[in-house]
Design a protein that fits this description.
Largest sheet of chain A: 6 strands, mixed
Helix content of chain A: under 10%
Distance between the termini of chain B: 36 Å
Structural class of chain B: mainly beta
Radius of gyration of chain A: 13 Å
Structural class of chain A: mainly beta
Distance between the termini of chain A: 40 Å
Number of strands of chain B: 11
Largest sheet of chain B: 7 strands, mixed
Low-confidence stretches of chain B: none
Order of helices and strands of chain B: EEEEEEEEEEE
Low-confidence stretches of chain A: none
Shape of chain B: globular
Mean pLDDT of chain A: 94
Number of strands of chain A: 11
Radius of gyration of chain B: 13 Å
Oligomer: heterodimer
Strand content of chain B: over 45%
Chain lengths: ~110, ~110
């Protein structure tokens, strides 16, 4: 099946810093999503981005489908950005609709 | 619409007991998914429904696990004869097809088997 690798596994920032999280995937995809899992376990959908670039406030994401990677940018980080960030992909075909998740990036933002 | 709802939020059970979880998806979503997440890992796919039809089951879903989605609305996930290895967060999500605008997850049910 498709493999999803996220880097870095852990990231510690001071409030106000910028960061870039990376997601590499091993095959073509028809869906890619970024999620933020808060300390209570809730997975919040940040972006649905199978290709191209999207922005939402301090967050933006870019997926280069032909090169099989996606980036999540967090600017001017805040303590509330802390949590685990997951990239998840849907490889389509017989796996259509099923998301395969990476291992996540644990982000800690200190005040 | 208040999103995807899961009940209960937490469940502690003794090994060997049966447990059932419920998921209410976003009403206009025709797809419903179950995932399991253990500590330090990303969620893993268990099964999904399109309307009332169960279209795929993961190899992770042993014979002790069963899921239903009667009438294509809410879904239940039952675990029979629970084992300590079943302790995990069970996550439900829904999406709409065609169009595939992405998943919305519920808050999950955290199961602890003692």
């Amino acid at each position: 099946g498709i493999q999803v690798e996220q880097s870095p596994p852990d990231l510690i920032l001071q409030e106000g810093a910028n960061s870039t999280l990376r997601c590499n995937f091993s095959d073509s995809v028809n869906n890619l999503q970024w999620f933020h899992q808060n300390p209570w376990g809730q997975l919040i959908n940040l972006f649905y981005i199978p290709s191209g670039t999207k922005q939402n406030g301090r967050l933006s994401a870019t997926t280069v489908a032909t090169e099989r990677y996606s980036l999540l940018y967090i600017s001017s980080s805040q303590t509330t950005d802390s949590g685990v960030y997951f990239c998840a992909v849907d490889a389509g075909g017989t796996s259509y609709g099923k998301l395969t998740f990476g291992q996540g990036t644990i982000l800690t933002v200190h005040p | 619409d208040t999103g995807v709802s899961q009940d209960p939020r937490h469940k502690i059970t003794k090994r060997g007991q049966n447990v059932t979880f419920r998921c209410d998806p976003i009403s206009e979503h025709n797809r419903l998914y179950w995932y399991r997440q253990t500590l330090g890992q990303g969620p893993e796919f268990l099964t999904y429904f399109q309307n009332e039809a169960q279209l795929e089951k993961s190899r992770l879903l042993s014979d002790r696990f069963s899921a239903e989605r009667p009438k294509g609305s809410f879904s239940t996930l039952e675990i029979q004869r629970t084992e300590q290895g079943d302790s995990a967060m069970y996550l439900c999500a829904s999406s709409h097809t065609p169009g595939n605008y992405g998943y919305t997850f519920g808050s999950g049910t955290r199961l602890t088997v003692v």
